UniProtKB/TrEMBL annotation:
Name this protein carries in UniProt: GroES-like protein
Matching PANTHER family: ALCOHOL DEHYDROGENASE, PUTATIVE (AFU_ORTHOLOGUE AFUA_1G14390)-RELATED, SORBITOL DEHYDROGENASE
Protein species of origin: Jaminaea rosea
Keywords, alphabetical: Metal-binding, NAD, Oxidoreductase, Zinc
GO MF annotations, alphabetized: L-iditol 2-dehydrogenase (NAD+) activity; zinc ion binding
Lineage summary: Eukaryota, Fungi, Dikarya, Basidiomycota, Ustilaginomycotina
């Protein structure tokens, strides 16, 4: 018989805004091929917030209580049988939150993010849902954890998850040294996109957003060379002719180019990372890309949009989708070790303990902490001395 200890705490969502800190039983020894990770840092993501507020994320509704969180790092506290020798107690690891079958065609060709059998922590897409990482101890397959170099903190280790989505985009568009990059949307992912584009060799990075504070932040940290504040657009006019809408987006692209003193007659950017999901920004992205350039859709926006497809197709502007990531953790570790992503932990604006997870989500929902500071990224971290 397996002996159990009752020390695992988890932030479990039971329904909209019904987040409970529960104590669960945990076997003292992980199953074969698994490790226990004492989770020390977890970033909260937009999808977690959707589940927290609405009990669903798009089409995927909560069908039973589920622990939230999927951006985590921690320390190995127990090792099950049949685990690789390098995974011993005390090793620091980042947790990759998706469990794929490792056998299907997509997995075999290295695109496991597209695995039809993918189970992703804290996603209600599959049933039963796979619990998320907002737990004090996570039981996880050994092949789903990545050793953290000593120079990389737990918080940065956790940030590798959202960073991975960006790195997937960078790989999809084969970003080359010296290219000019536009990032639309300067939330946490947009900021990481700016930093990663710089780290990956972009010579010139421009960030645009409607929030000037976020843009200042990007500039202060040298993640963006220049920024441009977009006017808060009026809500789309019902029944407006698409040509009129596209004309507006084209005008914004032109005005932005002029404000930045760019020759934007044919599109000034080699690559645009679209991180807002807002249709007017996707349109702007296409008009701002040079002939033969690439638009990478990183933001999860409305699934049906009207786009100036001619302005893309007739100038061979490739529109690339990104769904999560595959094989990005080793790449992130290399970039971090080479010092190419210095200071990315500064995107973390607020920190709470696991017990305070509810308040952490409320802060994310408000977009502002009780301290009055605007939210870029909310983290749940272990208290001092907990490790
Ligand atoms: Zn996420
Ligand atoms: Zn598969």
């Amino acid at each position: 018989m397996t002996s159990h200890v009752n020390t695992n705490k988890a932030a479990v969502l039971h329904g909209p805004k019904d987040l409970r800190i529960e104590t669960r039983s945990l076997p003292t020894t992980p199953p074969a091929g698994h490790v226990h990770v004492t989770v020390l840092a977890t970033g909260l993501c937009g999808s977690d917030l959707h589940y927290y507020l609405h009990g669903r994320n798009g089409d995927f509704a909560l069908r039973h209580p589920m622990a939230l969180g999927h951006e985590s790092a921690g320390i190995i506290s127990a090792v099950g049988p049949e685990c690789p020798a390098q995974l011993s107690v005390g090793k620091r690891v980042a947790i990759e939150a998706g469990l794929y079958c490792r056998e299907c065609e997509r997995c075999q060709e290295g695109r496991y993010n597209l695995c039809p059998s993918m189970r992703f922590a804290s996603s209600a897409k599959t049933y039963p849902h796979l619990d998320g990482t907002l737990q004090s101890t996570l039981t996880w397959p050994a092949w789903g954890v990545h050793l953290l170099p000593t120079s990389v903190s737990y918080e940065v280790g956790a940030l590798i998850e959202p960073l991975s989505v960006v790195l997937q985009g960078i790989r999809r568009c084969a970003l080359a040294n010296g290219e000019r990059v536009l990032v639309t949307g300067a939330g946490a992912v947009g900021l990481l996109a700016c930093a990663a584009a710089k780290g990956a060799g972009a010579s010139y990075v421009v960030a645009v957003d409607i929030d000037e504070g976020r843009l200042d932040f990007a500039k202060r940290n040298s993640w963006a060379d220049q920024t441009y504040t977009l006017a808060k657009s009026a809500p789309p006019v019902q029944g407006e002719e698409p040509a009129v809408t596209m004309g507006k987006a084209q005008r914004v692209a032109k005005e932005m180019g002029e404000a930045l003193s760019l020759d934007s007659s044919a599109g000034a950017f080699d690559v645009v990372f679209e991180c807002s999901g807002v249709p007017s920004c996707v349109q702007l992205a296409i008009f701002s890309t040079r002939p033969g350039g690439r638009v990478v859709l990183i933001g999860m926006g409305s699934p049906i949009q009207t786009l100036p497809i001619g302005a893309a197709a007739l100038r061979e502007v490739d529109i690339l989708g990104v769904f999560r990531y595959a094989n990005t953790y080793p790449l992130a570790m290399e970039m971090l070790q080479r010092g190419e992503l210095k200071g990315i932990e500064k995107v973390i604006s607020h920190r709470y303990t696991l017990e305070e997870a509810g308040e952490a989500f409320e802060t994310l929902a408000r977009g502002r902490g009780r301290d009055g500071r605007g939210v870029t990224k909310v983290f749940v971290v272990a208290e001092e001395g907990e490790e």
